[in-house]
Design a protein that fits this description.
By secondary structure, this protein is an alpha+beta fold. Helices cover 27% and strands 27% of the residues. Bound molecules: 2-amino-4-trifluoromethylsulfanyl-butyric acid and cobalt (II) ion.
Length: 256
């Protein structure tokens, strides 16, 4: 069942969304050569506790890993797709493509968002990958309208990515969000005919999160049980927003 939120509940989700936005803006500015991913983690952790919120990812049980995630951020660099773990040993360098993903819970509701930033000078191909991935999210956001269907969102990401010659990660997908970090429906970045194709209704909130590889789509998980990487070592980019269906069109909760 897809849980629809009242206008009052959406206002609460808005506050979670804006906190996530502020954190990601700050981390995006901090992500320069020489900074460790641990420093990003500590900054995020402080901003979350100062706001009286709780991290969404730290302590979240992921069946595929068989354990709880230990950090407030996923920081996934270059060929890493998602679930990259912050570490004092990971030092950002020029040329890195860094995706930062975080979530919080505030007043009982979750917010979840991700962006990808460049450190110093990155390759032209990596620039284009970031651009196309972000564009695919923006185009999908515009489909989050009453009366459209879920597959309109999924197919919009899929078509834009394919048209530009990149590949869509299939193993990790977007999701509904509310009082839980992950609610129904699952939101693949491609049309999966095995899934339902519900109509979008006022009050639904979708966390749309394209993960796109510059090479092949295949993924693997490292021995640390978490870090998902591209099999061929190609770059991966990730952008995510939480978007509510309103009678005024899409409302992106995770940006001003
Ligand atoms: N944005 C991702 C998601 O919504 C990251 C989750 S990290 C986890 O699933 F550790 F919490 F799983
Ligand atoms: Co998410």
């Amino acid at each position: 069942m897809i849980i629809r939120k009242t206008p009052e509940e959406l206002e609460k989700m808005r506050r979670s969304g804006l906190l996530v936005y502020q954190i990601l803006q700050k981390l995006g500015e901090m992500a320069v050569e020489g900074v460790t991913t641990q420093e990003l983690e500590l900054t995020a952790e402080k901003m979350i506790s100062d706001a009286g919120a709780k991290p969404a990812f730290k302590g979240y049980y992921v069946p595929a890993a068989g354990e709880k995630y230990k950090y407030v951020l996923c920081v996934s660099i270059n060929d890493e797709i998602v679930h990259g773990m912050p570490s004092p040993k990971r030092i950002l360098k020029s040329g890195d493509v860094v995706s930062i993903d975080t979530g919080v819970s505030l007043n009982g509701f979750y917010g979840d968002s991700a962006l990808t930033v460049a450190v110093g000078e990155i390759s032209e191909q990596a620039k284009r990958l970031m651009k196309v991935t972000e564009e695919s999210l923006e185009l999908a956001i515009d489909k989050v309208r009453e009366g459209n269907r879920l597959f309109d969102v999924c197919s919009t990401v899929e078509e834009h990515v394919k048209k530009n010659g990149f590949s869509i990660v299939r193993e990790y997908v977007g999701h509904g969000i509310g009082t839980q970090l992950h609610e129904e429906p699952q939101i693949p970045n491609y049309v999966d005919r095995k899934n339902d194709n519900p109509r979008l209704r006022e009050g639904m909130v979708l966390a749309i999160e394209p993960m796109v590889n510059s090479g092949k789509a295949d993924t693997k998980v490292l021995k640390d049980k978490w870090t998902a990487v591209t099999k061929d070592g190609s770059y991966s980019a990730h952008f995510e927003h939480c978007v509510a269906v309103t009678n005024n069109g899409p409302w992106v909760l995770t940006r001003p």
